[in-house]
Amino acid sequence: MALISKEEIRKPENLIYKKTPLLTDKPLSYCPGCGHGTAHRIVMEVLEEMGIQDKTIGIAPVGCSVLAYEFMNIDMQQAAHGRAPAVATAVKRLNPDKFVFTYQGDGDLAAIGTAETIHACNRGENIVIIFINNGIYGMTGGQMAPTTLPGMKSSTSPYGRDVHTMGNPLKITELIAQLPGTIYVTRQAVHTPGNVRKTKKAVRKAFENQKLNKGLSFVEIVSNCNSGWKMAPVKSNEWMVENMFPYYPLGDIKVNED
Hints:
The protein is α/β, with parallel strands linked by helices. It has a single domain (31-255), classed as Rossmann fold, CATH 3.40.50. 38% of the residues lie in helices and 16% in strands. The protein has helices at 6-9, 36-50, 68-71, 84-94, 106-112, 114-123, 163-166, 172-177, 193-211, 226-229, 233-247, and strands spanning 56-60, 75-78, 99-105, 128-133, 182-189, 216-222, 251-255. β1, α3 and β2 (75-78) form a beta-alpha-beta unit. α2 crosses α9 and α5 (106-112) crosses α6 (114-123). The longest helix is centred in the C-terminal third of the chain and has 19 residues, at 193-211.
């Protein structure tokens, strides 16, 4: 049996899948097993398929999301910690013909940036917010976040989150779904091929809503943080399904077709 050369395999007619050119060639520096890389790919594929890459501006603040600048081959603007929705508001109002999105983690969006998040959603700014929820502060040392589950251990809750002294986890997505300015609010995941397809469909819908000037679309992606959770990647995904999903159930929360 003759061996097939790499050159033959790489011919366009034999190509099954290729990386979107909207991702740079720089190797991802996220921890192995992290969902950020998959989320990046989904967003960039949607922009490429819609043909809006030259009309899009991404906003990312502090945390693991700040690394997005190195991997997303589009115009990007950095924001101070938690302030991405405020910066996105200014960018969109000054450039109404542009597609504007934020890419934020839970410690950023639901803690220091709670006010910016809620007020941008309440005003109905015509932007997309992409929210990665791994229930912890991933980059800065694994501290407890607003989304940390009851009893969940972190570097600042080594015995587990005690809701009597530390409060309950903040279901920020359900909270902003009640605001009149939000047109589409959904919670998805990227740990399986099926969930990746659902998430990509949700991200596409969010940008289509912005194209139609409908208002603010909010896409939460529940992900793992195997480094912060002190687990192997496969185990962290299993733990996420068993513990995160019951508290943060997947699916559309608000769909306004008007």
